[in-house]
């Protein structure tokens, strides 16, 4: 292949960096309730709140996010991935302004709703754009990178909240949306979307810029257009009915895997600990611990481990990483629950504080692996023909579930106590590991076409892939993986 000697990786990283600015901006409203609520519970605060209003302020963000997620699929399919992301930035900026200037509880809730809609609008287009511009060898790293930025945004809002009034924190939240809008305005569109929307010239230009090699870009564009032509021929060049396509085996299997994991991930506490970090740490550590500073420490740990998991995605199999993550999360949760049961009713000692802090940090470090998986699964497992539209609906379902759990969290904590909640987190973590161990295919280093072909096989369990492969060979069907190695032989 005759190409320039310079490695084009930095061009893909440059576009990813533009998305990361926005991802950090979306992480800030996710963690904002953890610093906003303790200040508003102060009776001297002008907009002081009770537990009922606090639960709404914490959870309404997740209630609003599905609105954006639901709209994001049609928007990015109709106008493209990049315009959808640019559109999503506008309400994020507006939401922070509403929060910063709020004079009533209604305006606080409205600001949270507007910011939540923006986060919903952003999630699917950002993950899909990165999945479609990345080479197979980089895809895990690039898709996982936004979760580093989410964690950075959470850490940033925690750090600001520990030093500044909640209104000043809200004004600070407007900076990243502005910077990301400028950066993404000059970014190229997804070549996959361009190729599937009869814009081959723009697709070729985008691929050449991303790959740094006209020959490689031409070959990749040929595969994209060939795949699209095959799909059109199968349906007599008529657009396939979206709802009818959901009955196809290649779509049913990834949808079941993704949705089941979403439920277990939420129940494992991945986002609940972010929303209610200060409350949980206060319960575990007693009055001797500075819960705000401890929440900042948890955000630092989450950021460090998210960064680590991104590089693990580059170096180790997906299945091994997420299985170990779930086992570590489950064991640490069981240890936390056992520790709190044993120490229930006993006076808190400095040793209790150190043990509690160590266990919660281990849990956060292990469970962070779950945070990276939904974006990776949506970016890798879904077929190209419905990837944009169905991704928005998947994020809609996810955020509706998250809202319900976040809204009920204070009441569940009152009934089960913190130790009971962590026991639930542990059981859900073990169940998520088992689910992915049984059903998730190994996708590291594989093209999106190869992954789609794997899901067309009749086997559901990953351990049965060789038998399914042998049956296909006997029937004369062949699906080749990257570099001639079938995905089913991984």
UniProtKB/TrEMBL annotation:
Entry GO CC: membrane
Region described as Disordered: 471-490
Highest taxon of the lineage: Eukaryota
PROSITE patterns in alphabetical order: MFS, SUGAR_TRANSPORT_1, SUGAR_TRANSPORT_2
Record-annotated Major facilitator superfamily (MFS) profile domain positions: 13-444
Location (main, coarse): membrane
Pfam families for this protein: Sugar_tr (PF00083)
Keywords for this protein: Membrane, Transmembrane, Transmembrane helix
Single annotated GO MF: transmembrane transporter activity
UniProt keyword S-adenosyl-L-methionine, yes or no: no
Protein name: Major facilitator superfamily (MFS) profile domain-containing protein
Organism name: Anopheles melas
């Amino acid at each position: 292949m005759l190409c320039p000697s310079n490695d084009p990786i930095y061009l893909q990283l440059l576009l990813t960096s533009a998305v990361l600015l926005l991802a950090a901006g979306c992480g800030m409203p996710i963690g904002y309730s953890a610093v906003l609520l303790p200040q508003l519970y102060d009776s001297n605060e002008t907009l002081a709140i009770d537990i009922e209003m606090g639960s709404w302020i914490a959870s309404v963000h997740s209630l609003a996010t599905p609105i954006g997620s639901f709209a994001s699929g049609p928007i990015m399919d109709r106008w493209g991935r990049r315009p959808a992301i640019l559109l999503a930035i506008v309400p994020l900026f507006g939401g922070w302004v509403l929060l910063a200037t709020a004079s009533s509880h209604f305006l606080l809730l409205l600001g949270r709703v507007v910011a939540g809609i923006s986060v919903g609008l952003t999630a699917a287009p950002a993950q899909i754009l990165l999945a479609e511009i990345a080479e197979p060898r980089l895809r895990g790293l690039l898709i996982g990178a936004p979760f580093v930025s989410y964690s950075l945004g959470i850490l940033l809002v925690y750090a600001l909240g520990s030093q500044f009034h909640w209104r000043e924190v809200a004004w600070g939240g407007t900076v990243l949306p502005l910077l990301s809008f400028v950066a993404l305005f000059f970014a190229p569109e997804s070549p996959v979307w361009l190729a599937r929307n009869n814009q081959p010239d723009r697709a070729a230009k985008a691929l050449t810029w991303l790959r740094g090699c006209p020959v490689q870009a031409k070959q990749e564009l040929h595969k994209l257009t060939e795949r699209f032509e095959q799909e059109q021929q199968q349906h007599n060049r008529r657009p396939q009915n979206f709802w009818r396509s959901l009955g196809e085996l290649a779509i049913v299997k990834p949808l079941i895997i993704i949705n089941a994991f979403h439920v277990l991930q939420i129940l494992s506490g991945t986002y609940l600990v972010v929303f209610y970090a200060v409350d949980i740490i206060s319960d575990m550590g007693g009055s001797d611990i500075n819960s705000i500073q401890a929440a900042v420490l948890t955000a630092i740990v989450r950021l460090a481990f998210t960064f680590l998991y991104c590089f693990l995605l580059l170096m180790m199999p997906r299945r091994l990483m997420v299985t170990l993550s779930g086992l570590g999360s489950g064991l640490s949760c069981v240890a936390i629950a056992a520790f709190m049961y044993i120490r229930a009713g006993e006076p808190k000692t400095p040793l209790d504080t150190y043990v509690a802090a160590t266990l919660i940090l281990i849990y956060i470090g292990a469970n962070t692996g779950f945070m990276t998986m939904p974006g990776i699964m949506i970016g890798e497992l879904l077929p190209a023909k419905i990837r944009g539209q169905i991704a928005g609906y998947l994020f809609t379902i996810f955020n509706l579930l998250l809202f319900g759990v976040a809204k009920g969290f204070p009441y569940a904590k009152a009934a089960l106590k913190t130790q009971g909640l962590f026991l639930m987190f542990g059981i859900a973590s073990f169940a998520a590991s088992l689910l992915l161990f049984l059903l998730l295919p190994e996708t590291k280093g594989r093209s999106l076409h190869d992954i789609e072909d794997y899901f067309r096989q009749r086997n559901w369990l990953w351990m049965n892939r060789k038998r399914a492969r042998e049956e296909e060979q006997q029937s004369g069907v062949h699906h080749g993986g990257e570099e001639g190695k079938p995905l089913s032989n991984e």
